[in-house]
């Protein structure tokens, strides 16, 4: 293969010094064919590319190796075999060649598959008030000196990119209801559609395509706020890519370095201040002349008006003990003595517990999220 320096010498000798081809061949110890090739092509570099890679030992085993590679690619990441294991399996079937041939072939095969199946996406565009996206993330903070893993609800308006986040101890259904109400109260309205992951608190059954059987209480919430729920295709995060990106953004800007607070109320106040400050300081990704906050204020007029708080509770039946206590979620809560002997209904909200009997409230307490706690109200 000709190096770049030799090609340059040939070109200078012929075009500048006007030496004959015979003299150039003698001085550089090259054949006339090579010198003529350089002069006629006007190229400054040459690279030899083998059109066919001979594989005398691997050739008969290519179909089997293709099958192994395809089957291995289709497995979950943690179950995939290494190339060494695939080579050993091929040797066990009778292949007598070396590992290097298998490695080169696998590299070419992977490149070809990537060119065939490379994903491409069309950017989604949303009209004002058309849709919002909802998702959860897990973060680690220090609350009252204790390292705690919290769940953070994320809501994002698709048109203005305005974001809202709120922290909770869990991802239960009553937390979903509370997060929506606080987000819509902050936005002073909601959108026509809500785009969701297939979370169990919202979706009970996934059918073919986009058909879903939604949770009854979740549908009641959507009906209250006049929202049409839309669930994403499983494992298709790009369908709600804005809120997926928001998770990383919030983690970087609001949870790094690790946050230290005394309570959830203090943490949520910090998060609300943080998202407002971010929206006022950063330009809209498409309308560069506006900040996110300005685009949000312009979108407010197109939002569906806020319908007021949805009575978002999770109800379970319970029994009252002889000591006037009701067990719920690994904790005990006191009730009126008159409630003993008959079943009650525990209504769990995000921050409080309400206990009813025959439509009458017999107890109301702040909610406890530990284990083995007893909450009294004499």
TrEMBL record:
GO terms for molecular function: nucleic acid binding. It comes from Methylobacterium aquaticum. Pfam families: Mu-transpos_C_2 (PF22483). This is Transposase of ISMdi27, IS21 family. Belongs to the transposase IS21/IS408/IS1162 family. It comes from the Bacteria. GO terms for biological process: DNA integration. InterPro entries: Integrase_cat-core, IstA-like_C, RNaseH-like_sf, RNaseH_sf. Residues 124-299 form the Integrase catalytic domain.
């Amino acid at each position: 293969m000709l190096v770049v320096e030799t090609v340059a010498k040939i070109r200078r000798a012929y075009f500048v010094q006007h030496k004959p081809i015979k003299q150039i061949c003698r001085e550089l110890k090259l054949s006339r064919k090579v010198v003529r090739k350089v002069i006629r092509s006007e190229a400054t570099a040459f690279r030899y590319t083998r059109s066919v890679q001979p594989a005398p030992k691997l050739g008969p085993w290519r179909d089997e190796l293709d099958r192994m590679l395809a089957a291995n690619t289709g497995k979950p990441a943690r179950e995939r075999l290494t190339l060494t294991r695939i080579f050993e399996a091929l040797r066990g079937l009778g292949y007598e060649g070396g590992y290097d041939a298998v490695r080169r072939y696998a590299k070419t095969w992977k490149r070809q598959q990537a060119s065939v199946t490379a994903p491409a996406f069309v950017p989604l565009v949303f009209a004002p008030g058309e849709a919002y996206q909802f998702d959860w993330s897990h973060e680690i903070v220090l609350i009252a000196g204790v390292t705690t893993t919290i769940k953070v609800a994320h809501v994002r308006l698709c048109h203005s990119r305005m974001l809202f986040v709120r922290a909770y101890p869990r991802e239960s259904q009553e937390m979903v209801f509370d997060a929506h109400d606080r987000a819509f109260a902050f936005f002073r309205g909601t959108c026509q559609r809500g785009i969701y992951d297939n979370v169990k608190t919202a979706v009970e059954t996934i059918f073919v395509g986009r058909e879903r059987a939604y949770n009854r209480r979740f549908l009641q919430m959507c009906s209250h706020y006049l929202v049409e729920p839309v669930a994403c295709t499983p494992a298709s995060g790009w369908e709600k890519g804005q809120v997926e990106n928001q998770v990383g953004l919030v983690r970087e800007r609001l949870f790094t370095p690790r946050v230290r607070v005394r309570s959830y109320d203090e943490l949520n106040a910090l998060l609300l201040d943080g998202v407002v400050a971010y929206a006022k300081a950063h330009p809209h990704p498409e309308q560069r002349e506006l900040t996110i906050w300005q685009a949000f204020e312009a979108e407010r007029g197109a939002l569906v008006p806020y319908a007021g708080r949805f009575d978002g509770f999770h109800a379970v039946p319970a029994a009252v003990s002889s000591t006037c206590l009701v067990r719920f979620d690994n904790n005990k809560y006191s009730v009126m003595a008159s409630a003993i002997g008959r079943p009650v209904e525990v209504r769990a909200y995000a921050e409080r517990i309400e206990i009813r009997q025959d439509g009458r409230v017999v107890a109301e307490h702040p909610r406890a999220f530990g284990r083995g706690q007893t909450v009294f109200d004499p």
